[in-house]
Amino acid sequence: MVALPGVDPSWPAYRDVPSTAAVDPAGTTNSWHYLDNGSQLLEPPRGTLLCVHGNPTWSYLWRSVLAAGVEHGWRVIAVDQLNMGLSERTGRFRRLADRVDDLNDFVDSIGLTGPVITVGHDWGGVVSLGFANRRRDLLSGVVLTNTAIHQDPDRQIPAPLRLALHPMVHRWGTRDTSAFLDVTHSLARPSLPKEVRKAFLLPYRGGARRQGIADFVADIPAGPSHPSYPALRSIAEGIRTLEVPALMLWGPEDPIFSDTYLNDLAERLPQADIHRFEGASHLVGEDRDIATPLFRWLNGARSAGAASPEAVSPEAASPDQEPAQAGTFTPLEHELIQRATGPHADQLAVADMGADGQIERSLSWQGLEREVQTLAAALRQIGVRRGSRISLMVPPGVELTVLLYACLRIGAVIIVADAGLGRKGLSKAVRGTVPDFLIGIDLALTAAKLFNWPGRRISVATLPAAKRKLLGVQHSLSELRAASGDGTSTETDDAGLDPAGLDPDRPNPAGLDPDGLDPAGLDPDGLDPDADAAILFTSGSTGPAKGVVYTHRRLAAMRDTLAQTFNIRPGDGLVAGFAPFALLGPALGTTSITPHMDVTKPKTLSAAALADAVAAIHATTVFASPAALRNILATQGELTDQHRAALAGVSLLLSAGAPVPSRLLTELLGILPGASLHTPYGMTEALPVTDVDLGLILSAEADAAAGNVVGAGNGVCVGRAVSGAEITVSPLNQEGTADGDPTTDAGITGEILVHAPHVKERYHRLWMTQRVSSRCGGWHRTGDVGHFDGDGRLWVEGRLPHIVTASTGVVTPVGVEQALESVDVVGLAAVVGVGPAGTQAVVAVVETIPPVKKPGLAGAELAAQARNAARSVGVELSAVLAVPSLPTDIRHNAKIDRTAVAVWAAGVLAGGRVGKL
Description:
The protein is an alpha/beta fold and about 900 residues long. Strand 9 and strand 10 form a beta hairpin.
């Protein structure tokens, strides 16, 4: 065989294998080509990875796994299926059942005795699972990449495959030309190097060599009548009883094997560890390094399961957070029920403000409980069960509150992916969680239609018949509520609905209620505290938004932490101008009101709108984002005497999501003279982590200026740990990597680690990310960088990905940015690194007041002021750039996208076109 990039000359091998496949005449022997790294192993292998390619690739697909196998002591055998790659062209059409027989014949011929880990991609995933299901005597685990095991008979196969199967396209596209190959290779992200593309094409030169590609396409079981459908269904059902560990490495941008197929596999193999490589596509092994996580998974599992060499431990394979403390558990909605059934039943519970400054919609505690119970029963009638995933695309307010608590009462998993993620981020979040149901306003339903989001669609409003049909809406909330009393529905689409609301031909996902409308299913005390309750999404300000899974226990712990830290008591009045807290009001027993604003744009909250909301319920507590606070100050001129009197009654202000300068907080005292101003630090994975008030911030800043407390300064002081939380830091090395032993010593910069009962359970289908974040035995690694001072206060210096590794050492951005923002004409600053790691130039990009007309190099005077400010904190700037505005995240309008700034600055300094940032 000719030399191929990435293939060791010792790997290629051929073997004549007697066939037992039904398609072959008795006594047939077929010649197989395969790659085998066994000759390079210096010791007996720890096990064997049996890698099976799909269509139209070949064993070359697994070259990175073969190379890594040598390093880790695993034998890797990557076969070329018959009629494919460099294996024999048998001249016979091989169906799925034949290919499973083929693989079994090969394994018997080569004499594998186990333990065997099957690894499959595309059609190779199906074939490898067929072998795994049959040869459990050898099997120790399964690994899958972008494949499918079940085709919903009510849904069409993906459009690219329908096209490839079309009679006018099939032969031409798969055999007569290289079109099918070319299209497959074009799916790589980034594009395949020329030499790699040539290697993938090597075995398929000429129509005769491509007949196997055509046959594979023709053997796709597009429906129950297809000859291979029984074999596919048998494998799909058989793997449900596989008890070995499983790993799924997935490219979610695959136009063929979408997250819907991943979700089906996850339901059949619930023990699987799953990692989705955001941005990767069908050829995930080409798009991303899959060998490293694969062997990390294998090696971690093997070390924990050493006493049993035939098995891999799934627990060891996925080192999740330590379980939350299993003490007394009080359901999230406990206080709601208590107040609804007690003397406060008729008091106001939740309300929305209108544009006219008056309450637009409200519910008493009794009314809220009735609405929650009614909607929960109605949702169960259409098939929502424990474990069902419900995407809620409804703005914060009364309606969303009712929906959220109704879903939690059932035991459904709520998915909260807000518009603050942006169009692309929101779409990726929805597709990645594969909701069973999507409940949304018109705009969300339109997006669901345009972007083909999964889930049965339920509208908040009652839609005209034509629009309902166009958007694929099956139910509306008002009609569900009206029908919930007698279990019938007036909706045409509901005619003949199975009482369980599920297709009887589809297996129910594990863990869902098998019964129909068991009243116990609506008892919050009957829920499993450690079952998944919610998937929330990070803002995406430092990379793709991550799904964060919370259990019922951890959500309840978040409620308790807020109540204990800030002394929030049942009966308090709460203005929720910050979406994450808007939903916790009923759980805290507070009367909650949503002010009139665009919740996707926090800075739209005006001073008057805040005052109207405070006055409406005599609120004592306000939650608002930093961007909202800035606009409140900017619009304070519209406040009336009545507004100011109402605001004077606020005793607590909480603002989270980004640092809030002390000068801004001080200015707010003019509007909220009686309030204690707090800016808790936290993240989606743990909210909150620390608490700090204005008094502590001013004291810390004074200590930093005086230099009389070790470690005071160089960052934002975020205070001390909240109730029940512990914090430490893992020191940075010279390369900016946090690999030091955790410490709380003053003045040592490192990655911030948190341990608390309200920390996330795990990341959603991000096994690698979860493993990294929880590798310190129950501590969550936040990705933030900071240090303690001599008084035990925590200072945040930035994010790990934003550290600058200059030739003089590691530079964290926040302290330098604060110094730059002390310059009168600088409104906002970003400090980034440009150039190779270890010798990066420290570059400042500043947003000026007033804004500069064009982005580019800063003027001489501004540059000199910026350099002097940076020198005051010990940093030399290589360049200063000025822009009209810096990019910030959509959700908070506050977190600077330093990654985008760094890319832009590098282009400008390299002499490129000075475009808009």
